[in-house]
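Quick start: load a record and inspect it. Here is DUF2061 domain-containing protein:
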Amino acid sequence: MTDFARRNLFTLKKTASYYVMHITVAAAVAYAVTGDAWMALTLSLLEPTVQAVAFFFHEKAWARRQALEAAPTTAPAAT
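Running the structure step on this input writes:
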């Protein structure tokens, strides 16, 4: 396992579960709208794939922000 995967394992797992859930919902909605299983499958794979990548970076940005807010601030040196 790469160092990147090891460091981000929790977020990668969360992203994968979100991806599966999103594909399932998107396929159901696309089929309900189009009535075409092939079209529903195509749409449900394309859009969630892009969303999953965006979600990963969204989570990383929020984690960085949370870490920055939790980090103690140092007082400026007296002059």
